[in-house]
């Protein structure tokens, strides 16, 4: 919450003469959707709850699947900030349409079926995508993470993957990340990078994950998507 808003709430609570009323006032102010949510949810695959503010907020906290199952939008319950997930179908996955290398499976997300990509076997692993930051909350520090898991048959992950993100101001951030010890059967957030939504970073972010060592065949990675969430 912005300091000015908190100061205003504290002033109102003092006038009421009750700490309990102050708490209720804070909660009432927090349970308000971000100002740009209407434009974001216009292509939701399920109806948006408009009968009451509480029901609307609960739906946004739980998340709304957009663009025919390619993207999810939700509001962080604690920070009241916009969050997004680009599901695997919105990513560019090399050999992703060839069933010899990748298998697509259906899982349920917020009451809607979406697809995840399970790696059968590849030597050249390349996953990339892009995202426009205009829909994120302003003046907020965000984390970009790959949401993935490993199957029991995983192998070939002794070599770390290369990860990079390029911000709208053209600043690139690169690092390597080992996936060798990722837990099996559990979704894990793999941090790809961080940035702040300032005026110079309004535009398109691109990201890339790769590992293309000759004769290093990999299998067992399950990709759900790439998340943009406020840093806590």
UniProtKB/TrEMBL annotation:
Compositionally skewed regions (Basic and acidic residues) per UniProt: 8-28
UniProt-annotated stretches for the region Disordered: 1-28
Pfam families: PP2
Designated name of the protein: Protein PHLOEM PROTEIN 2-LIKE A1-like
């Amino acid at each position: 919450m912005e300091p000015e808003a908190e100061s205003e709430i504290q002033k109102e609570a003092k006038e009421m003469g009750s700490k309990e009323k102050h708490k209720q006032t804070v909660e009432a102010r927090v349970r308000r959707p971000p100002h740009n949510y209407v434009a974001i949810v216009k292509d939701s695959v399920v109806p948006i709850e408009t009968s009451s503010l509480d029901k609307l907020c609960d739906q946004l906290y739980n998340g709304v699947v957009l663009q025919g199952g390619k993207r999810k939008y939700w509001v962080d319950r604690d920070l009241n900030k916009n969050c997004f997930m680009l599901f695997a179908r919105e990513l560019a996955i090399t050999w992703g349409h060839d069933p010899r290398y990748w298998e697509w499976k259906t899982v349920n997300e917020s009451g809607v079926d979406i697809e995840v990509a399970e790696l059968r076997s590849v030597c050249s692993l390349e996953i990339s995508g892009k995202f426009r930051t205009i829909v994120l909350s302003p003046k907020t520090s965000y984390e970009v993470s790959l949401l993935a898991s490993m199957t029991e048959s995983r192998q070939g992950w002794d070599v770390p993957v290369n990860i990079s993100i390029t911000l709208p101001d053209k600043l690139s951030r690169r690092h390597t990340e080992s996936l060798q010890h990722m837990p099996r059967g559990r979704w894990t957030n793999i941090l790809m990078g961080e940035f702040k939504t300032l005026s110079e970073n309004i535009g398109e972010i691109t990201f890339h994950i790769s590992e293309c060592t000759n004769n290093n065949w990999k299998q067992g990675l399950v990709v759900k998507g790439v998340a943009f969430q406020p840093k806590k």
